[in-house]
Amino acid sequence: MADCIFCKIVKGDIPCTKVYEDEKVLAFADINPIADGHTLIIPKNHTENIWEISGEDLSAIHLVSIKVAKAMKAALNSVGIALLQLNGSAVNQVVMHYHLHLIPRRADDPKLALTSWELKPGDMKAIEEIASKIASEIK
Length: 139
Fold this sequence. Notes:
31% of the residues lie in helices and 18% in strands. It has one domain: HIT-like (HIT family, subunit A, 2-Layer Sandwich), CATH 3.30.428.10. The protein is globular, with a radius of gyration of 17 Å. The two termini are 29 Å apart. The longest helix is centred in the middle third of the chain and has 22 residues, at 55-76. The chain contains 3 helices and 5 strands. By secondary structure, the protein is an alpha+beta fold.
């Protein structure tokens, strides 16, 4: 897509700090990092979100995420890693090109707000009804 910043990065029109690249994906340092080492993995093919991405591109991204996560653990002594992927403006997806955030965490890092929520029992009847609705739509 001509106006997509990530497509411009893939084409080389905009520079990035490359972490990994192969024929299907590109991994590069986030320029607005949540933590040291925050990396994005994107498909080279433009696709906006989880509803549009091909299984092949999604698989490639997640296979590369294993390599990058292991490298983060070794290079940064990380003891945890958050993988974050947002779809749509309702969850604050800013760049409308599918991307997976890898955010390494060290033992002394503060908790990420999104990864720390209060555990409270849900309404099991409602949970079962909603799960059944979703399951019935899987094709």
